Amino acid sequence: MNCLRELLKIKHLVSNPIYSSAFLHSSSSTPNVLKNGHILKLARTFSDSDIADYSELSLDSNPLHFDSEYAKVAGFSDRLVPGMLVATLFPRIIASHFPGAIYVSQSLQFKLPVYIGEEITGEVEATNIKEMRKKYLVKFSTKCLKDSNIMVIDGEATAILPTLAMEQQ
């Protein structure tokens, strides 16, 4: 069973181009340096396999994520992607542009459900940058959207960045 699970994970990783990223910047003349107003994005579609892997690691076995009938009785149209799994987009976006970033805090408000197979776009927007001892304390507005403009998660994050120079994605 474990061998089959590992093969399924590998197949999923190889065959599922679930990530796409983008960088949108303000009218700054130096787009490779983070400034207030810069928006970083990452789109991802969550699968059954993602939920199984998340459940195994987090020990979250909520039947809303595994049983369609249970989810329907609870008022949803189908099984839900765990909200905390969706929120993992934020640290991924920040760390992929700023290797060595240290996540300090995150607030989350779950607005709407996310269902398996929906493409979700995570966005982080720099709202406050402070230099501190040759590092940078950055506050980000965070949100996840489905269908390009329907907010499913809203919040704020703070991270310590080793540099404001962004790695190209």
Automatic annotation (TrEMBL):
Annotated MaoC-like domain residues: 42-139
One Pfam family here: MaoC_dehydratas
Query: Gene3D superfamilies given for it?
Result: Hotdog Thioesterase
Q: Name one GO molecular function term.
A: hydro-lyase activity
Full protein name? MaoC-like domain-containing protein
Per the UniProt record, the source organism is Cinchona calisaya
